[in-house]
């Protein structure tokens, strides 16, 4: 069959010679497979045959993912079923018949080791015959038949693509790695940097670090060039960082074109700098939803900078009792400072039974905006009276009380008191939020950095730095 190979540019010559059009190992390299199958089909006359042969993923490629070792331009791997699926996507069902589908394996050598190109036939072939449309079977076809419109099938059968295209790139030759942190944080990234050097041993690596880490970075021997750039102060306690303010200077400092740029910082503040890098592939920690420019995104644990929650309950104001002149509505409980009884609990409840653990209760409380002598006393009590946390408040703010429960079956109570010898404050109470904290299970920044390098290596080397191209 290889002697009969004909490029699609010579289809008119093939028609003059006979009644078959042959495509041998062409379809697998073409991005828009539906358009080219329609074009080949449109050049046939009724009764002519289209023969398509592609490499068999098991017999020839012998791998489950691109890139192909022997056909680097190949965009899709084929089984008999996937080849037939592409034809069904491209053509109206009454415009062809499948006359033969099978594996071509004459003389195939099954004993060759994996790294050697297969010997013998190792392809899949399908033979389809162009037919006349069946009158009246399809709903309202266009005026012209499908084979007279090579660029698209009839609207009723122009299906979504089931074959996702994958863009295959060569291994990156120029890599930029950003490890922009405070003094000492470079140490946390050493395992990741060593992985990058080992995985991309043939690439030129530029490493961007703070000026205070430049000497240490050079001693590591993991980069071909060290670039000093101060996006943060030397120590985290010196001043509040403003990474976005350094963007213009960063653009002026990093002007080269790279195949791959990696930001190893676990915190997301330096992604604005990564976005400015000229690179074919950009990799960082975060999500594509927040950073759509990331080609390779390692999601960040959402609890990284806060306590993981084992319980999170919102308790409405109706779960609390009150005394005095407080006025209850559907939305909250409102108290006027002029009529609140002195030296007594204004509000208490909800008497929920808790299991052992560390808790936070957040009072949903709006206070009158005044800075006089008015005070309210907030507390948390357990088992009907044992106070375990308290605070005095005089104006708007966030009112969180942390406490611990040691015994099973402990009763929880949150209360609001007036304060002796101090005026009260008008307030509105809307309930509260009870959070039970659990031990955090987040990764350390060194683990995030190493996982990102592993992920990049998987996408770039193992699976060919693939990016999905959306159907349509």
List keywords for this structure.
472 residues, alpha/beta, Rossmann fold, Jelly Rolls, 3 domains, 6-stranded parallel sheet, 6-stranded antiparallel sheet, Glycosyltransferase family 9 protein
Description:
The protein is α/β, with parallel strands linked by helices. The chain folds into 3 domains: 2-163, Rossmann fold (3-Layer(aba) Sandwich); 174-304 and 445-469, Rossmann fold (3-Layer(aba) Sandwich), CATH 3.40.50; 309-438, Galactose-binding domain-like (Jelly Rolls, Sandwich), CATH 2.60.120. The chain has helices spanning 11-17, 33-42, 57-61, 80-90, 185-188, 190-199, 214-220, 247-253, 271-276, 445-462; strands at residues 20-24, 49-55, 96-104, 123-130, 165-166, 174-179, 204-209, 225-228, 257-263, 278-285, 296-298, 308-315, 321-322, 327-328, 333-335, 345-354, 357-367, 376-382, 386-393, 399-405, 410-418, 427-438, 468-469. It has a 6-stranded parallel beta sheet. The radius of gyration is 35 Å and the shape is elongated. Mean pLDDT is 81; it is low at 1-17, 140-156 and 465-472. This is Glycosyltransferase family 9 protein. It comes from Sphingomonas arantia.
């Amino acid at each position: 069959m290889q002697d009969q190979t004909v490029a699609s540019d010579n289809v008119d010559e093939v028609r003059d010679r006979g009644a078959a059009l042959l495509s041998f190992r062409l379809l697998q390299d073409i991005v828009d497979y539906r358009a080219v199958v329609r074009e080949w089909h449109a050049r046939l006359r009724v009764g002519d045959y289209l023969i398509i042969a592609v490499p068999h993923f098991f017999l020839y490629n012998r791998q489950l993912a691109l890139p192909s070792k022997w056909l680097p331009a190949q965009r899709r791997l084929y089984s008999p079923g996937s080849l037939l699926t592409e034809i069904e996507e491209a053509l109206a069902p009454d415009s062809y018949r499948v006359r033969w589908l099978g594996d071509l394996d004459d003389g195939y050598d099954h004993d060759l080791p994996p790294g050697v190109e297969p010997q013998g036939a190792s392809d899949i072939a399908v033979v389809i015959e162009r037919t006349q449309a069946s009158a009246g079977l399809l709903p309202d076809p266009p005026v012209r038949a499908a084979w007279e419109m090579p660029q698209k099938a009839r609207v009723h059968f122009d299906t979504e693509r089931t074959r996702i295209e994958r863009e295959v790139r060569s291994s990156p030759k120029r890599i930029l790695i950003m490890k922009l942190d405070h003094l000492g944080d470079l140490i946390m990234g050493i395992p990741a940097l060593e992985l990058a050097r080992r995985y991309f041993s043939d690439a030129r690596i530029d490493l961007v670090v703070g000026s205070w880490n430049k000497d240490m970075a050079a001693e590591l021997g993991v980069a071909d060039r060290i670039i000093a750039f101060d996006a943060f102060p030397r120590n985290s306690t010196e001043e509040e960082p403003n990474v976005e303010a350094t963007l213009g200077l960063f653009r002026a400092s990093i002007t080269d074109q790279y195949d791959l740029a990696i930001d190893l910082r676990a915190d997301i503040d330096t992604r604005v700098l990564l976005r400015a890098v000229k690179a074919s592939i950009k990799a960082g920690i975060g999500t594509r939803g927040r950073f759509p420019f990331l080609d390779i995104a390692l999601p960040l644990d959402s609890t990284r900078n806060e306590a993981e929650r084992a319980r999170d309950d919102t308790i409405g104001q109706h779960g609390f009792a009150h005394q005095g002149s407080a006025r209850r509505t559907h939305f909250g409980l409102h108290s006027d400072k002029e009529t609140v009884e002195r030296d007594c609990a204004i509000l208490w409840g909800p008497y929920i039974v808790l299991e052992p653990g560390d808790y936070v209760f957040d009072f949903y409380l709006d206070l009158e905006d005044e800075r006089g002598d008015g005070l309210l006393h907030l507390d948390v009590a357990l088992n009907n009276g044992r106070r375990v946390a308290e605070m005095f408040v005089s104006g708007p703010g966030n009112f969180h009380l942390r406490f611990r429960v040691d015994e099973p079956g402990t009763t929880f109570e949150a209360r609001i008191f007036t304060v002796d010898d101090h005026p009260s404050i008008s307030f509105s109470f809307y309930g509260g939020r009870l959070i039970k904290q659990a031990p955090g299970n987040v990764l350390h920044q060194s683990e995030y950095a190493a996982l990102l390098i592993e992920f990049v290596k998987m996408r770039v080397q193992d699976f060919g730095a693939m990016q999905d191209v959306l159907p349509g």
